[in-house]
Specification:
The complex is a heterotrimer of chains A (about 475), B (about 625) and C (about 110). In chain A, a hairpin with a 4-residue loop joins β1 and β2. Chain A is globular, with a radius of gyration of 21 Å. By secondary structure, chain A is mainly α. Chain A has 21 helices and two strands. The longest helix of chain C is centred in the C-terminal third of the chain and has 31 residues. The chains are: A mainly alpha (about 475), B mainly alpha (about 625), C mainly alpha (about 110). At the B-C interface, α26 of B face α2 of C. Chain C: One of its GO terms (cellular component) is NADH dehydrogenase complex.
Amino acid sequence: MNVSTILIILLIGAFATYFSGDKLASKVALLFSLAALGCSIVLLNNYNAGENISVINSWINQPKISFALNGDGLGLAMVLLTAALTPIIIFSSFGNEYKNAKGFYALILFMAFAMVGTFLAADGLLYYIFWELALIPIYFIALIWGNGDAEERRKAVVKFFIYTLAGSLFMLTAFIYLYQKAGSFLIEDLYKVNLSACEQFWIFLAFFLAYAIKIPIIPFHTWQANVYQKAPTVGTMLLSGIMLKMGLYSVLRWQLPIAPLAAKEYMTIFIALGIAGVIYGSIVALRQKDLKKLLAYSSLAHVGLIAAGSYTLTLDGLRGSVMQMIAHGFVVVGLFFAAEVIFRRYETREIGEMGGIRTQSPKFTSMFLILVLASVALPSTFNFVGEFTVLYSLSQINIWFAILGGTTIILGAYYMLRMFQHVMLGETNSKTFADVTLNEGVSFAVIIAVLLFFGFYPKPITDLITPSLETILQVINKN
Amino acid sequence: MDTNLALILVLTPLLGFLVNVFFGKSLGKTVSGAIGTIAVAISFVVSLLLFNQITSTGKGIQVTLFDWIQISNLKINLGFLLDQLSVLWLLFVTGIGSLIHLYSISYMHDDENMHKFFAYLNLFVFFMITLVIGSNLLVLFIGWEGVGLCSYLLIGFWHKNQDYNDAAKKAFIMNRIGDLGLLIGMFIIGSMFSTLDYATLKTAIAGATNLNLPLLSLAALCLFIGACGKSAQIPLYTWLPDAMAGPTPVSALIHAATMVTAGIFMVTRLNFVFDLATDVQTVIAVIGAITSLVAATIGLVQNDIKKVLAYSTVSQLGLMFLALGFGAYEVAVFHVITHAFFKACLFLGSGSVIHGLHGEQDMRNMGGLRKAMPITFWTMLISSLAISGVPFFSGFFSKDEILLTAFHHSIPLYVVGSVASIMTAFYMFRLMFLTFFKEFRGTEEQKHHLHESGSLITIPLIILAILATFGGLISLPGSSWLNGYLAPLFTKVAGEEHHLGATEYTLMGVAVLGGLLGILIAYVKYFKQDNVPESDENITGLSRLLYDKYYVDEIYDAVFVKPINVLSKFFRDHVETVLSAAVFGLGKIASEIAFQGKKLQTGSIGLYLFVFVLGLCAIVSYIFLAQ
Amino acid sequence: MGNILNQIGIENYIFLSVVLFCIGIFGVLYRRNAIIVFMSIEIMLNAVNLLFVAFSTYHQDAQGQVFVFFSMAVAAAEVAVGLAILVSIFRNIGSISIDNLKNLKG
């Protein structure tokens, strides 16, 4: 059994979902996503047992492109994140009715397929194909099942599509250039290519454009808030929970090891950019009126910190940012789901129209509060482990980075608690707020359980990702 | 065995929390209250056992559970350290905690969410224990932020009132400012010594040859900022008075006796770091002295009974930091303990009064409660005497030692501390006279319902009053049990035992006289002359300034909160628009080029053919000319 | 074959094809009737074909003639499609003067 199994399961799942009809679609999709989760756990087991789970087949001879999937700890961690979040996302959507459900759920599975592919691909062109493939389902999900005015939505989604696509083209150019040099798209060969500092700079920049738009790092984030707001919540969860991790993951996997000289040379600039994102995102989030937009900007702040951690090029920084990616993936899915739960009852996302939910649904309040606290990295949640590690690594580069990046714990608390106060507390709302359903409760409980468990015991994840990160660092430091 | 004890100690309150969260509602109010109380009481019993063990063996117990966070040069365990300091803290945290739980069963009985209240209280005790017994700074940090969370939950316990929620939020955020300092301090220490573990750190510092002292001082300063946040020192003190929005038992437990002393605990715990950073120690002493004075002046004119006590707490915490600044850790710890006794008693007493008056907190509407609430009166009187430093009550000994230490190091700070103490005596007795003497000034209906509180409320009061009376015995001048007990913790010779010479007796006399003077002024003003504080709009001049707390909240609002919000609006409305327009602009440029280009396509085939031939000629001539 | 070339000379072939090509060009530029333009283009094409064949003989290399076969086949196909388009244009518009065909304006 190797990593391609999970891709096959997801792809078959997407087709099976589509052909199962509208009524069964959601259940079939859940079944296949759970199968994928099970498969990834088995793979994890095999990997820990020392089995080789990578795949390498030649695919096209001229130019030399291989179907190469690399099952190392880092890739597996990201695959696990995807495989764990997909069923949660699908399960959480059971409370909604979607027209043409078969298409909807098939697209979700297809997107999971493409994202898993991106995390596993060990061949530049294959990776690029998966990377772009992931864009297509989310485009349709946001366009067809999104909310708000159709014209505005189309505008936002098309902007997102073109913008990210344009960024990726620079990456493609970089890959083609690298192919000229290396004669192969295989990642090991690309790692080995000798590039002058100038070449590395341009390649680094080309990758950066693609990733900065996807992650997003300021000032390339303008698509984010609008798309998060306009997309259906499932789409927002997929985008924020997993898809933006594709960008962050790619920084670690592709950008840094391929252009290490440039990475070292311009490290401070990119760390500063990430930290600027932290502060900017936090401040903008303060005064948002739309709940989903607020969460979008909070996400901007968090990924800024993760990116800054990655660019430190230290083991702590990389490890912290991977842990923070996973933690943020879970918490942001939970928070967007909370927004959805409120929307199901109040039909609004305006914070000003909410309030006083706590008296009506204490259960929901508790769960929401835990997610809010996880998001502000309270110790004993997984987010704290990640944030602490990242901030520590930043402090090793320059103490001011840690102080400025650390403002996230103040500003984050400010905007999140402010939001919590206006959404949940206050006089009992005149509109009734039905208590959480079993389905909603289970979705929340799973997310919270994951966050708390790894908050106290992050060792399994640390052990999983550390060897691959050390390999990457070796490549970075080889010269 | 030790591991099990430690786990029982920590996990029982957590269990109480879980039971109350999940089943509290169905269990009924009394049962859920009882569960909460018993959970803490069990921890108290375990603390007693541990205390017994520590005093007999004299050695700390180190318990390591498992690896928690792995950072390249730092390995952080989830572990506990039970030594003299932590067990001492445990004793009064769980002891006073149990009493306050007991008290709350009666106090909160009318609240529909009583099970939640107990759940939060238990959670608080859990985090507080974690804070105290953590074996490294990061475990302390779990507790540190955890108690902040519980404080947030409990201040905003009556969550329908947005003002209370604002107060809760403010407390959390101001604490987080301190927490950032604490984190940075940890980063510096971690990178210097590759450990955050107390024991390892102590040996590392003791064994270090080339210490980077400026960096260590910076770390100490950052840690102190953390302590400022949690222990409400200038400039981060403004959350504590607002925190009085929470139910009174919360104010007693969290905002007087236990959580706010966490800063002092941390500094004491890391005494070996602070001892090396003498500049920072000076900063601590100065900030402590100023805080104690500023808070005392504000306390002089407050009319809300809990606000008076809150400012008094800030002021007393300032005194403790004054002692810490001089490296007199055991003195600060001594005052922490006595303060915990009398301040908890005062808060619980004020709670009893508020309970009796159905929520009335303004002292202008009280008075004459002495007859209706005799037990409350007597216990509060004892505690007031203790806090005012009247001889032979516990506060006398501890406060006197602080002032004595200050006198030996810095006369100006001694004066500041003494003035603050005189003010303390004044406002405490102002409170007593306004509340318990003369005629009742409330409504007829309130008067009709006046009654002494039930036994669940009075028993804790009595116990605390007894402790407030005799608590001083643990560290009598000359033969201090406490100093000897804590001695293994400190690198310096534990408390240069003050020889009780003439100077000391004079100072003691001055302090006592000062305290009596404060009481006397209060007596004259509020008993003899029968003054009642003016209503809000009539307050003018200096008292207006004090009454409005030097407008510090307003200043913070104008300097920090407003600008950030304005910036946020500016970013949202302008910067975001510009950035977004820039991206759209790129698209616009492309389509503009296309628009211009399409004009070439005239549709005239003749023209196309002409251009085609022209192009052909151009190519041909190029080929010829190139040769 | 060689002697035919010897008799006439390669220059004459080149002259002929140049003349033919120029006729084609002038036809394309001056005539307005789409069929005539079309025919002129064919003349240009054939001028080139002629040159191909001539040089193929001159160099004693059959490749040129193979090319001509290809280009003739393509030209035939092109003529078939082109005439069909013209017929359909005539049916729709009633004229095949290229001055009237301006629907491709951008």
